[in-house]
Design brief:
Blueprint (H helix, E strand, L loop, with lengths): L5 E4 L6 E3 L2 H7 L3 H10 L3 H8 L4 H11 L4 H9 L5 E4 L1 H11 L5 E6 L6 H7 L9 E3 H4 L6 H10 L7 E5 L2 H9 L3 E4 L3 H10 L6
Parallel strand pairs: 1-4, 1-6, 4-5, 6-7
Antiparallel strand pairs: 2-3
Protein backbone atom coordinates (compact mmCIF):
# COMPACT_ATOMS: atom_id res chain seq x y z
CA UNK A 1 0.00 0.00 0.00
CA UNK A 2 1.46 3.40 -0.97
CA UNK A 3 2.23 5.99 1.69
CA UNK A 4 -0.46 8.66 1.75
CA UNK A 5 0.90 12.19 1.92
CA UNK A 6 -2.14 14.20 0.83
CA UNK A 7 -5.78 13.95 1.90
CA UNK A 8 -8.31 15.63 -0.41
CA UNK A 9 -11.75 16.44 1.02
CA UNK A 10 -15.01 17.05 -0.76
CA UNK A 11 -17.09 19.59 1.19
CA UNK A 12 -20.86 19.36 0.67
CA UNK A 13 -22.10 16.07 2.08
CA UNK A 14 -18.78 15.34 3.78
CA UNK A 15 -18.02 18.35 5.99
CA UNK A 16 -21.12 20.46 5.38
CA UNK A 17 -24.77 19.46 5.63
CA UNK A 18 -26.50 20.87 2.53
CA UNK A 19 -30.02 19.91 1.50
CA UNK A 20 -32.40 21.95 -0.71
CA UNK A 21 -35.34 20.24 1.00
CA UNK A 22 -34.60 22.23 4.15
CA UNK A 23 -35.67 25.36 2.26
CA UNK A 24 -38.47 23.96 0.13
CA UNK A 25 -40.23 22.34 3.07
CA UNK A 26 -40.83 25.93 4.20
CA UNK A 27 -42.19 26.89 0.79
CA UNK A 28 -44.39 23.90 -0.12
CA UNK A 29 -46.95 22.32 2.18
CA UNK A 30 -46.30 18.66 1.32
CA UNK A 31 -43.26 16.47 0.83
CA UNK A 32 -44.68 15.38 -2.52
CA UNK A 33 -44.60 18.97 -3.81
CA UNK A 34 -41.05 19.42 -2.55
CA UNK A 35 -39.91 16.27 -4.31
CA UNK A 36 -41.69 17.16 -7.55
CA UNK A 37 -40.17 20.64 -7.64
CA UNK A 38 -36.61 19.39 -7.04
CA UNK A 39 -37.00 16.54 -9.49
CA UNK A 40 -38.49 18.66 -12.28
CA UNK A 41 -37.70 22.36 -11.84
CA UNK A 42 -34.59 23.10 -9.77
CA UNK A 43 -33.05 19.72 -10.43
CA UNK A 44 -29.69 18.26 -9.41
CA UNK A 45 -28.48 18.68 -13.00
CA UNK A 46 -29.67 22.30 -13.12
CA UNK A 47 -27.79 23.09 -9.92
CA UNK A 48 -24.66 21.27 -11.11
CA UNK A 49 -24.43 23.57 -14.10
CA UNK A 50 -23.84 26.45 -11.67
CA UNK A 51 -21.13 24.32 -10.03
CA UNK A 52 -19.59 24.17 -13.49
CA UNK A 53 -19.51 27.94 -13.88
CA UNK A 54 -22.95 28.94 -15.21
CA UNK A 55 -24.18 32.15 -13.58
CA UNK A 56 -27.12 32.20 -11.20
CA UNK A 57 -28.89 34.80 -13.32
CA UNK A 58 -28.66 32.58 -16.39
CA UNK A 59 -29.79 29.55 -14.40
CA UNK A 60 -32.83 31.40 -13.10
CA UNK A 61 -33.72 32.66 -16.56
CA UNK A 62 -33.59 29.16 -18.02
CA UNK A 63 -35.76 27.66 -15.29
CA UNK A 64 -38.26 30.53 -15.22
CA UNK A 65 -38.67 30.43 -19.01
CA UNK A 66 -39.62 26.77 -18.71
CA UNK A 67 -41.71 27.09 -15.52
CA UNK A 68 -42.87 30.75 -15.29
CA UNK A 69 -45.54 29.86 -12.74
CA UNK A 70 -42.73 28.94 -10.30
CA UNK A 71 -40.68 32.14 -10.65
CA UNK A 72 -40.71 32.95 -6.94
CA UNK A 73 -39.83 29.41 -5.94
CA UNK A 74 -37.01 29.25 -8.50
CA UNK A 75 -35.53 32.54 -7.40
CA UNK A 76 -35.64 31.30 -3.80
CA UNK A 77 -33.11 28.57 -4.60
CA UNK A 78 -30.25 31.05 -4.55
CA UNK A 79 -32.05 33.97 -2.96
CA UNK A 80 -32.49 31.86 0.19
CA UNK A 81 -29.60 29.48 -0.43
CA UNK A 82 -28.19 29.73 3.10
CA UNK A 83 -31.40 28.15 4.41
CA UNK A 84 -30.29 24.93 2.72
CA UNK A 85 -27.27 24.73 5.01
CA UNK A 86 -27.71 22.76 8.20
CA UNK A 87 -24.35 23.36 9.82
CA UNK A 88 -21.16 21.34 9.73
CA UNK A 89 -20.65 17.64 10.37
CA UNK A 90 -18.76 18.24 13.59
CA UNK A 91 -17.31 14.73 13.90
CA UNK A 92 -15.78 15.09 10.43
CA UNK A 93 -14.52 18.60 11.23
CA UNK A 94 -12.74 17.05 14.24
CA UNK A 95 -11.05 14.53 11.93
CA UNK A 96 -10.08 17.35 9.58
CA UNK A 97 -8.56 19.33 12.44
CA UNK A 98 -6.42 16.37 13.51
CA UNK A 99 -5.11 15.92 9.97
CA UNK A 100 -4.51 19.64 9.49
CA UNK A 101 -2.38 19.68 12.64
CA UNK A 102 -0.23 16.74 11.52
CA UNK A 103 2.82 17.99 9.58
CA UNK A 104 3.09 14.67 7.76
CA UNK A 105 0.01 15.42 5.68
CA UNK A 106 -1.05 18.03 3.16
CA UNK A 107 -4.80 18.58 3.40
CA UNK A 108 -6.68 20.22 0.53
CA UNK A 109 -10.25 20.37 -0.76
CA UNK A 110 -11.92 19.71 -4.10
CA UNK A 111 -15.53 20.80 -4.32
CA UNK A 112 -18.31 21.18 -6.84
CA UNK A 113 -19.60 24.60 -5.75
CA UNK A 114 -20.95 27.70 -7.45
CA UNK A 115 -18.44 30.54 -7.56
CA UNK A 116 -21.23 32.94 -6.55
CA UNK A 117 -22.27 31.08 -3.39
CA UNK A 118 -18.73 30.15 -2.36
CA UNK A 119 -18.11 33.47 -0.52
CA UNK A 120 -21.17 32.78 1.64
CA UNK A 121 -19.74 29.42 2.65
CA UNK A 122 -16.35 30.95 3.43
CA UNK A 123 -18.00 33.46 5.71
CA UNK A 124 -20.05 30.82 7.53
CA UNK A 125 -17.56 27.97 8.00
CA UNK A 126 -14.22 28.85 9.59
CA UNK A 127 -12.70 25.45 8.78
CA UNK A 128 -12.82 26.23 5.06
CA UNK A 129 -9.86 28.52 5.72
CA UNK A 130 -7.76 25.67 7.16
CA UNK A 131 -6.95 23.95 3.86
CA UNK A 132 -3.67 24.48 2.06
CA UNK A 133 -5.66 24.75 -1.16
CA UNK A 134 -9.32 24.62 -2.18
CA UNK A 135 -10.26 24.00 -5.80
CA UNK A 136 -13.77 25.35 -6.38
CA UNK A 137 -15.36 24.01 -9.56
CA UNK A 138 -17.40 27.12 -10.29
CA UNK A 139 -14.29 29.29 -10.25
CA UNK A 140 -12.48 26.96 -12.64
CA UNK A 141 -15.55 26.25 -14.81
CA UNK A 142 -14.70 22.58 -14.49
CA UNK A 143 -16.43 20.10 -12.19
CA UNK A 144 -16.21 16.57 -10.90
CA UNK A 145 -16.23 13.95 -12.33
CA UNK A 146 -14.36 15.47 -15.30
CA UNK A 147 -10.86 13.93 -15.30
CA UNK A 148 -9.38 17.37 -15.96
CA UNK A 149 -10.34 18.66 -12.51
CA UNK A 150 -8.38 15.88 -10.80
CA UNK A 151 -5.43 16.53 -13.06
CA UNK A 152 -5.68 20.23 -12.23
CA UNK A 153 -5.56 19.76 -8.47
CA UNK A 154 -2.62 17.37 -8.78
CA UNK A 155 -0.67 19.72 -11.02
CA UNK A 156 -1.22 22.94 -9.12
CA UNK A 157 -0.25 21.32 -5.81
CA UNK A 158 2.66 19.28 -7.26
CA UNK A 159 1.11 16.02 -6.06
CA UNK A 160 1.72 12.40 -6.99
CA UNK A 161 -1.65 10.72 -7.57
CA UNK A 162 -0.71 7.48 -5.84
CA UNK A 163 0.20 9.39 -2.67
CA UNK A 164 -3.25 11.04 -2.47
CA UNK A 165 -6.56 9.87 -1.09
CA UNK A 166 -9.86 11.57 -1.95
CA UNK A 167 -12.96 11.61 0.27
CA UNK A 168 -16.34 12.22 -1.41
CA UNK A 169 -19.94 11.20 -0.72
CA UNK A 170 -20.62 10.70 -4.45
CA UNK A 171 -19.35 7.36 -5.75
CA UNK A 172 -19.24 8.74 -9.29
CA UNK A 173 -16.60 11.24 -8.20
CA UNK A 174 -14.59 8.60 -6.32
CA UNK A 175 -14.49 6.34 -9.38
CA UNK A 176 -13.31 9.23 -11.55
CA UNK A 177 -10.52 10.00 -9.07
CA UNK A 178 -9.46 6.35 -9.04
CA UNK A 179 -9.22 6.44 -12.82
CA UNK A 180 -6.57 9.15 -12.36
CA UNK A 181 -4.61 7.00 -9.90
CA UNK A 182 -5.95 8.65 -6.73
CA UNK A 183 -7.14 6.40 -3.90
CA UNK A 184 -10.70 7.00 -2.79
CA UNK A 185 -12.96 6.76 0.23
CA UNK A 186 -16.69 6.75 -0.50
CA UNK A 187 -17.91 8.75 2.50
CA UNK A 188 -20.87 7.52 4.54
CA UNK A 189 -20.35 8.97 8.02
CA UNK A 190 -17.68 10.11 10.44
CA UNK A 191 -17.00 6.75 12.07
CA UNK A 192 -16.71 5.00 8.70
CA UNK A 193 -14.31 7.71 7.52
CA UNK A 194 -12.16 7.31 10.64
CA UNK A 195 -11.88 3.58 10.08
CA UNK A 196 -11.18 3.96 6.37
CA UNK A 197 -8.35 6.40 7.07
CA UNK A 198 -6.84 3.96 9.57
CA UNK A 199 -7.18 1.15 7.01
CA UNK A 200 -4.97 3.23 4.72
CA UNK A 201 -2.37 3.64 7.48
CA UNK A 202 -3.23 7.30 8.01
CA UNK A 203 -2.50 8.43 11.54
CA UNK A 204 -5.73 9.54 13.17
CA UNK A 205 -6.89 9.54 16.79
Amino acid sequence: MPTIKTIIFDLGGVLINWDPKLLYRKIFDTEEKVDWFLENVCTFEWNEAQDGGRSISEANEIAITKYPEYQNEIEAFYGRWTEMLNGAKEDVVAILKTLINDPDYKVIALTNWSAETWPWALERFEFLHWFEDVLVSGQEKLKKPDPKIYQMILKRNSLIAEECIFIDDNLRNIEAARNEGILGIHFKNGSQLMQSLKDHNIKID
